[in-house]
Amino acid sequence: MAAFRPVPNLTLCAPLDEAALRDLMYSATQSAYGATIIRYPRGYGHGAAWRNRPYNFIEPGTAVKLHEGKDVALLSIGAIGMNGVKAVERASREKGLEVLHYDMRFLKPVDTAALEDACRCCRHIVTLEDGTVEGGLYSVVAEFIAAHGCDCTLTGLGIPDRFVEQGTPAELYQECGMDANSVYQALLK
């Protein structure tokens, strides 16, 4: 017999790529989801295959482990996580750094098992989000760390709480310290 899981009042999510967007849009129509907000990124996709394949149901509040590691954890949400993937690969290749990387997918409900894993395995956590750090994933992780007395440092990468000029996504990511090189540098610190 399956365990009862209440339907969340509100689901906030952001896909990593086109395939995840397609699956989140499908999943949001199912009874396991309440009111749902899916954040669409600006610009173009990353080229993930999404056509001519079955829909996959995504359980609300589930993260995906993209990379195993024990030195530092990277928790990303949304398409900006692809910059994280590049930074993790570079840190592993050039510095031998073992980075635990989760695509959190959901801001609400958040995957507490993924947060517990990150806090248990790593003493340093970096969050990466294509949104404001204040009130976003960084804040959720900080609240979790404080509530559970985790012995971790936390660094947040995202849009600062100030007016950001216009530009291409690549220009703005660099200005806000969210490009692959900036993420790489944050992982090394």
Q: Can you offer a commentary on this structure?
A:
β4, α2 and β5 (99-103) form a beta-alpha-beta unit. The longest helix has 15 residues, at 81-95. A five-stranded mixed beta sheet has the order 3-5-4-7-8, with helices on both faces. A three-stranded mixed beta sheet has the order 2-1-6, covered by helices on one side. It has 189 residues and is α/β, with parallel strands linked by helices. The chain is built from six helices and eight strands. The model has no long low-confidence stretch (mean pLDDT 92).
Q: Which characteristics define this entry?
A:
single chain; 189 residues; alpha/beta; 33% helix
Order of helices and strands: EHEEEHEEHEHEHH
Name the average pLDDT.
Answer: 92
Strand order in the sheet with the most strands: 3-5-4-7-8
Percentage of β-strand residues? 15-25%
List the uncertain runs. Answer: none
Amino-to-carboxy terminus distance: 47 Å
Helix content: 25-40%
Number of helical regions: 6
β-strand number: 8
Largest sheet: number of strands, sense, barrel closure: 5 strands, mixed
Shape: globular
Radius of gyration over alpha carbons? 16 Å
The class by helix and strand makeup works out as alpha/beta
